[in-house]
């Protein structure tokens, strides 16, 4: 099925599906507008109260197909749990619970808890004591809690079996049947399975009442002329860095960068614009007129990059788009197919590059399984390649200016400067070039840029091994992680307030830099970057304390503004220092 056919068949909108207003508002915030085929067919069935058999491949949007109507039907005033969702693996249980929390962001009292093995019971006991409306879990751990009396299913009104055939394959199906026997007979049940082996069909016949069957054949054909690759990244700031490098090094015409949220689209567009790219953002908060204007500018070649959410890019057809950069991986295969179809139009070749973190690994595999195509890993652009490309561009620009020949005034200024400074032309040209490039991360000899490649190697085999194992090693998000005061000072006693030591006295000022333990930085890296960028002798660089996500450094009082401006943009361990005096208000990119 072609991408155009998919869009024509999938003309239903979420607004047409009778979902509750808080759920619809959440979908607008997220940027979802058009349901996938399984969602369009299953949501009305679940809302009607009928039992459902949903047969669809992984990656077709099954989670939203049951989560959205479930959230619309449950009443936060009712004492929970009211719904139980069984999943074969802890990774899927976490993924489903996170998705439901996201869809239910406007339903503050409607709690969601994930229960799975391999973790401490105590935390799960406490979560269940709060009587969440929805419990998502693996069969084994759900059984454990039922037996211990910490999970009461007597009030359950909705049961969802997700990836039932996978639970059968993993040997959990007897556990599933045992759990179902502990739920009320009067309940609504939805069973989702990619295939329908006899054992699953028998369970459906026994446990479901007059079910409606919805079978969806997943779209498996991505655009054959588009090469698909992915790059492993270590978080949001690393993604920004890699995206900027790709935009410099990839031979491209126009490009579109896809993000999950509207706020990220705006922030990324701002970041790219500040680096000199001709870019516009399009998303749901931008008027239709401005969206059309941005697309028109792209078609005319007046801008080269669009940063967009999925909804804003619906129907976008621009022949000159050669590259699609997936800054965020979509939840399902359908939107991914739509995205990369923007490149390779009219039979031309195109490139689709996905920026991937460890948390996204399962989604990558789901998309590959659904599309039956494997994406190829690629390394981030090297420092040497970036230096070479910048040098080539510089020489080309200078050559064009020389060919044009209109620089008599500048020639006079250079002649005067040579006489006044008593230097040679080569030295003067190098100094002017450094002044021109001030504020950009240098890809050649600075300590900041040299430090970026070893950082990746210092994470080395272990970092790659953790990534390749997927999200299994990923530590679950805990409340204290969201704004953690936890700190690990490298050379100091544990500070008193939020990990900050008291400010220094005398002729020393304390500065904060946005690089820390999480970025594998060492004190010597920071000293080298400051000394090289500012020209300050290392002996005048004082106490350095390294925390999880930032560091502090003592410098002589009265540092010139020009030097501080350079230090803000210096790079260490793949991070810009963003240096600021301790106590100054800092701008945090990607604030949601």
Put the structure in a nutshell.
With 592 residues, the protein is of the alpha/beta class.
Folded structure, characterized:
The chain is α/β, with parallel strands linked by helices and 592 residues long. It has 4 domains: 3-215, Rossmann fold (3-Layer(aba) Sandwich), CATH 3.40.50.300; 226-381, Rossmann fold; 384-436, no CATH class; 448-581, Alpha-Beta Plaits, CATH 3.30.70. The protein is built from 21 helices and 20 strands. The strands form 4 sheets. It has a 7-stranded parallel sheet, with helices on both faces. β18 (571-572) and β19 form a beta hairpin. The two termini are 37 Å apart.
Write the layout of secondary structure elements.
Elements: H1 3-9, H2 21-30, H3 37-47, E1 52-55, H4 62-73, E2 83-86, H5 90-103, E3 112-115, H6 121-129, E4 134-137, H7 139-148, E5 158-161, H8 164-169, H9 173-181, E6 188-193, H10 198-207, E7 212-215, E8 226-232, H11 236-249, E9 254-258, H12 262-274, E10 279-282, H13 288-300, E11 305-308, E12 321-326, H14 333-340, E13 350-356, H15 361-371, E14 376-377, H16 383-404, H17 408-421, H18 425-436, H19 447-468, E15 508-513, H20 523-534, E16 544-546, E17 551-556, H21 561-568, E18 571-572, E19 575-576, E20 580-581
EC number: 3.6.4.13
GO molecular function: ATP binding; hydrolase activity; RNA helicase activity; RNA strand annealing activity
Motif (Q motif): 12-40
């Amino acid at each position: 099925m072609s991408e155009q056919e998919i869009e024509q068949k999938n003309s239903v909108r979420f607004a047409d599906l009778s979902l509750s207003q808080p759920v619809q508002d959440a979908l607008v915030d997220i940027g979802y507008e058009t349901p996938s085929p399984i969602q369009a067919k299953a949501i009305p069935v679940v809302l009607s109260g009928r039992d459902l058999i949903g047969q669809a491949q992984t990656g077709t949007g099954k989670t939203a197909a049951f989560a959205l109507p479930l959230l619309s039907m449950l009443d936060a005033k009712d004492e929970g749990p009211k719904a139980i969702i069984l999943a074969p693996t802890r990774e899927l249980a976490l993924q489903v619970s996170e998705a439901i929390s996201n869809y239910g962001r406007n339903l503050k009292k409607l709690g969601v808890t994930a229960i799975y093995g391999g973790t401490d019971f105590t935390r799960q006991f406490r979560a269940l004591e709060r009587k969440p409306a929805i419990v998502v879990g693996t069969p084994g751990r759900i059984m454990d809690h039922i037996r211990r009396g910490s999970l009461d299913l007597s009030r359950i009104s909705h049961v969802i079996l997700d990836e039932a055939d996978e639970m059968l394959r993993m040997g959990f199906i007897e556990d599933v049947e045992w759990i179902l026997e502990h739920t009320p007979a009067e309940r609504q049940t939805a069973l989702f399975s990619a295939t329908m082996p006899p054992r699953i069909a028998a369970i459906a016949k026994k446990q479901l009442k007059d079910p409606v069957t919805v079978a969806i054949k997943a779209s498996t054909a991505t655009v054959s002329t588009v090469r698909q690759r992915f790059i492993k990244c270590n978080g949001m700031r690393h993604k920004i860095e890699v995206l900027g490098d790709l935009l410099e090094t990839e031979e491209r015409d126009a490009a579109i960068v896809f993000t999950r949220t509207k706020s990220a689209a705006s922030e990324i567009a701002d970041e790219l614009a500040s680096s000199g790219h001709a870019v516009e953002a399009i998303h749901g908060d931008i008027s239709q007129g401005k969206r059309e204007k941005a697309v028109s500018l792209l078609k005319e070649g007046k801008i080269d990059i669009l940063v967009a959410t999925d909804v804003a890019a619906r129907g976008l057809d621009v022949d000159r788009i050669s590259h699609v950069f997936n800054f965020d991986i979509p939840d399902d295969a359908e939107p991914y197919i739509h995205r990369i179809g923007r490149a390779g139009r009219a039979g031309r070749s195109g490139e689709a590059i996905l920026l991937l973190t460890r948390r996204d690994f399962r989604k990558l595999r789901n998309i590959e399984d659904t599309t039956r195509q494997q994406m190829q890993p690629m390394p981030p652009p090297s420092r040497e390649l970036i230096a070479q490309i910048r040098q080539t561009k510089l020489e080309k620009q200078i050559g064009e200016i020389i060919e044009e020949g209109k620089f008599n005034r500048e020639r006079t200024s250079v002649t005067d400067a040579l006489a006044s400074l008593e230097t040679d032309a080569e030295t003067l040209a190098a100094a002017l070039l450094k002044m021109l490039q001030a504020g950009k991360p240098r890809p050649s000899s600075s300590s900041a840029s040299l430090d970026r490649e070893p950082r990746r190697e210092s994470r080395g085999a272990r970092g790659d091994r953790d990534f390749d194992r997927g999200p299994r090693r990923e530590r679950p998000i805990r409340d204290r992680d969201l704004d953690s005061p936890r700190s690990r000072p490298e050379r100091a006693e544990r500070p008193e307030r939020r990990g900050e030591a008291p400010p220094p006295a005398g002729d020393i000022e304390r500065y904060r830099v946005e690089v820390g333990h999480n970025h594998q930085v060492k004190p010597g890296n920071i000293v080298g970057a400051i000394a090289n960028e500012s020209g300050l002798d290392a002996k005048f660089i004082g106490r350095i304390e390294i925390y999880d996500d930032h560091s502090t450094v003592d410098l002589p009082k009265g540092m010139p503004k020009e030097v501080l401006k350079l230090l803000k943009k210096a790079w260490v361990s793949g991070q810009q220092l963003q240096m600021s005096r301790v106590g100054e208000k800092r701008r945090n990119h990607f604030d949601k």
